[in-house]
Amino acid sequence: xxxxxxxxxxxxxxxxxxxxxxxxxxxxxxxxDAKAVEFFETKIRPxxxxxxxxxxxxDAEKQKKLKGGLKLDSKASLLKGxxxxxxxxxxKPDAGKLLKTxxxxxxxxxxxxxxxxxxxxxxxxxxxxxxxxxxxxxxxxKLAAGIDIAKGKQxxxxxxPKEPSVPQIRKSKSEIRNQIDSFxxxxxxxxxxxxxxxxxxxxxxxxxxxxxxGLPPAPEDVDAFLADNSPQAFEKVIDRLLxxxxxxxKWARHxxxxxxxxxxxxxxxxxxxKTQAWRYRDWVIAAFNSDMPYDRFVKxxxxxxxxxDAPDDPFTKFAGLGFLGLGAEYYRDAGCGLRADxxxxxxxxxxxxxxxxxxxxxxxxxxxxxxxxIPTRDYYSLAxxxxxxxxxxxxxxxxxxxxxxxxAQNNLKKTEAALKKAQADAKAKPDDKTLPKKVKExxxxxxxxxxxxxxxxxVVHVVSGNGSGMKILIRGNPxxxxxxxxxxxxxxxxxxxxxxSEFTRLDLANAIASKDNPLTARVIVNRVWAWHFxxxxxxxxxxxxxxxxxxxxxxxxxxxxxxxxxxxxxMKWLHKQIMMTTVYQLESRxxxxxxxxxxxxxxxxxxxxxxxxxxxxxxxxxxxxxNLDKTPGGPTFDLRDANAKRxxxxxxxxxxxxxxxxxxxDFPDANVTADKRTETTVPQQxxxxxxxxxxxxxxxxxxxxLEKLGKTDSERITSAYRLAFGRQPEKREIELAERFLKLPxxxxxxxxxxxxxxxxxxxxxxxxxxx
Amino acid sequence: MDFSSEFRVPRSALSRREMLHSSGTxxxxxxxxxxxADSGELVALPAxxxxxxxxxxxxxxxxxxIIHLFMNGGPSQVDTFDPKPELAKQHGKKVDLKSGRxxxxxxxxPFKFSKFGQAGIExxxxxxxxxxxxxxxxxxxxxxxxxxxxxxGLLLMTCGNTQAxxxxxxxxxxxxxxxxxQNLPGFVVxxxxxxxxxxxxxxxxxxxGVYQGCHIQNLDPKRVIDHIRNSNVTPDTQREQLxxxxxLNTIHNEKRGGDDQLDARIQSLEIAYRMQTEAQEAFDVxxxxxxxxxxxxxxxxxxxxxxxxxxxERGVRMVQVFYGSGQPWDDHSNVEKGHRTKAKDSDxxxxxxxxxxxxxxxxxxTLVLWGGEFGRTPTSEGANGRDHNSxxxxxxxxxxxxxxxxxxxxxxxFGFAAVDKKVHIHDLHATILHLMxxxxxxxTYRYSGRDFRLTDVHGTVVKDILK
Lengths: 771, 467
Prior knowledge:
The complex is a heterodimer of chains A (about 775) and B (about 475).
Chain A (H helix, E strand, L loop, with lengths): L4 H12 L15 H20 L6 H5 L12 H6 L17 H5 L15 H12 L19 H4 L26 H13 L9 H13 L5 H9 L5 H10 L2 H14 L19 H12 L4 H10 L10 H5 L3 H4 L11 H21 L18 H11 L3 E6 L3 H30 L5 H19 L6 E6 L5 E4 L7 E5 L19 H8 L7 H14 L20 H13 L4 H9 L12 H7 L11 E2 L2 H12 L34 H5 L18 H9 L1 H15 L5 H13 L5 H12 L10 H10 L2 H4 E2 L1
Antiparallel strand pairs in A: 1-2, 3-4, 5-6
Helix pairs in contact in A: 1-2, 2-6, 8-23, 9-11, 12-13, 14-21, 17-18, 19-20, 22-23, 22-24, 26-29, 28-29, 29-32, 30-31
Chain B lengths: L2 H5 L8 H7 L6 H11 L25 E6 L14 H5 L23 E4 L4 E4 L3 H5 L4 E8 L5 H10 L9 H9 L9 E4 L23 E3 L18 H21 L4 H24 L6 H7 L3 H14 L4 E5 L12 H25 L6 E6 L3 E2 L11 E2 L3 E6 L7 E3 L1 E2 L6 E3 L2 E2 H11 L9 E3 L2 E3 L15
Parallel strand pairs in B: 1-7, 1-8, 4-12, 4-15, 5-6, 5-7
Antiparallel strand pairs in B: 2-3, 4-11, 8-11, 9-10, 13-14, 16-17
Helix pairs in contact in B: 8-9, 11-12
């Protein structure tokens, strides 16, 4: 480590993001030459950079640190050798001094800080024996050009979606209600599947309520729907739900997973708290509730401050910028600043490209993307749009108010500084009798200014300014700068603006939120589909590249994408199209014959039973017990407070320490964008249902609510089922309940039998899973 | 390998693409688990309902459990397990060590070293008890890490990355191996309060949430795990509640033609019920005979060491015991006093743990790791402290397939930088995984289009220390 840990560290960073080639991708196996290049890139080059370049490179020469006249940073100079002769002869490991030196076999022993591991020396031996394939250019900093963009554009997801012809279903097994059903039905026919029966109306209304609002229907809502025999009955339900404030609360949370929304940072040193992060959450909720066109939604999150037709209202204009403004900030002490800068840019590129485009562009940080047509240069073209931009706060107040506040703050700071100086002076010069008086006056002044301080301004946390552009960082190493990477968009995708120094965030926003972009519409309609059905048409919603899943219904995906854009990028339009279909309305029972063909239900021959997301489960417990506080928006609350009654979307989300309830029930880590949630079933979750204070509070409230809803146990049990499950209890369920309620109370129990029973219902599977 | 029997996954339940992945490509069981979990389909399938079920390692493991005694803050190597006579000789001399910090002059160890065990390995007077166990211990004197600061240092040691963006080793292990006792968490972290950085040190990150370390601050059995105890009804009443819940859930499931995820939750409720008593019992060190407790000594750390033994005895995969909250070993000033106090507090407990494990026949299958996130400078900071040092430090391993009575690698003449047989933290991780039966290059998780692993693209198993 005597060579200084900085360079060493940087290289580790570079390698840290190296893509590890998955062993199972046989289709993408590189050709022999490519394999040799990869061997060099993974086994040889990193060792040279890490251990040798400091004294044996062009840079070292420029800094007058070159040793032995030997440069190892280009193919030509390596072959040329140094002062003591030939370093290496391709194909002949025994010739040349390089290997001998590495083996510490002789007078010159390199690297000086210690012999490399035997496995590394063996790699060098193999490399030389195999012909010393070295893709580096003549000057050492040129990168090999390897990606054929034109060829890359042939991949399905880079082809513009075309409106497909809708399949004609001659003999339909179920009602074809719109084009979506035709595509789905065609797949059933192809696979020999018979669709499940339609779900009954009770099941359907619960599915719709939870799906659009994350809350259960009230018993009266169910009754009204059952009583409505008109053909429009379900459409009316959808329209009502889409108009409810709860729709935005539910669907914003889906997007917040993608936006890796949180209010703090994973590490603790030197992080400025984002006290008003919640405004971004409220902005997303408002965007969904107002059915903001998705292309607009994208543009405002990338460049709301720059749009020529930006909204006047500063909240709508700026708050969406929290998408990146609330991004990761990394540890930057002890010489980690450059690395932190690079990592923060990576967070932005990653969230932006996976989130909006379904592309894993961050894989191209250290080398050209191994599977998708994304050269490293493109990565830095995007990163350059943000290089040097600032994380800042935009006040949401009239200029006069802002000025008054800043003036008051500055004045306070000035006075405090004066006070500090006066105190120091007074200490230093005890004889000066004027000083104590001055200290007293200034102390009073500071107190007065503090008292008169206007309340903190409402602000939103944003990324501001335009990036300076970047050079390629070779192998992701922030200190190894290569060629220019002019600011711009991915070469494989169309962009209305050419790359170059004038390229801005606005150009980026326009390139993404464009109907000519083959990915943007496809990616979002697929996300919405996945959030409804539990599985996307592309089952890797944030990866539409070669390693992502192929679409199960490619024509349907294109039909949705094209028509979504045609219909004003309207999310509410999309929901309605999906929910009005037969396929949305199928019951979720298994079927032995179909299971043999498609047990995973990829062809959607039945409905999907889903566990409620943790937010919806908690909200439902509150709603059923009558405790739910529906107040929308505003500062976050702490879920550790068992008495908190607001919807879970308004709870604090932490990167540092995610709340235990959220974590327990598979809420995603907010340090990175999440495309879907894993789902696990573990006993600690059930301990929450059995023992937590929150559960007990809801059980008590539910029991108290039921007491007023009937005179007999049987009446109250019926009310309980209507509230909790939207149905009447069966006879055997009433009997089981009555038997339980008649059990004698034990002296040490602090809950009545009714409260215990209420808790059982709240903890039940029927409350947690939606058919 | 027959994946379908391993996971009891009906072939038909796999999509075509997944079939492609799973058939004839040499992809290990673990990889398939990751693939399925990542594709979100693991959950809907029968056996996969329990992501913590024990899984087969890549090869026969030497160790089944790990106890990591984390001396957070960074103990000084030259004052503990790495004697440096040259340092004493040149005491007071100015040297340029390029530590990345601001070193003072060379500062000799205030502690005497003497030889222990048949191996005759030198250990400082701080640890006479641990010294007496030296024949079971392998001291690695050539550790090095990346950055001489706590946050990145702690994260690298626990998660293999200097930023808080990767799963911890315990999460990787429980993901890869599951755990043997379903009534206890598979990965337990014992720390009163929080170490620097905090929960990211045992974070699951992109792995499913079940692989997160279970942080236990207070060893009071009634409070060890969130919601472990019901303070409102008696156990008998809770049993009655659970019986009713079971009946209602069964009716619900039957009406739906049977559904694995519904079944899984019914079973999970039963496990939770049992967990209440078993977990409380497992953490309850007062159930140990007094003479055993006496060998460990008193205080949180001693109790935590004893609890760690009780936990691995009951099948917990990994127990990480932090010496204390904050960064207790961080003796920037008066290293003599600071180290003496902490050593006095921990020497007895650590040695008792080793002896106890050995007596119970558990040491062979339990790997014990002792060490900090980095070392300290052989130069002084201020009058009598020592600064952070990432260039060289030592850790030791015992049990679990590691040779005892040996030292491995060395630092330079002053004990500043590792020079011979250097072992980076990635190498340590690779070695630990190897001992647990895992090829560190094959334990991967597909996330966001890439396969991640604990050692990233690094790590070499230190073969010379293996039995």
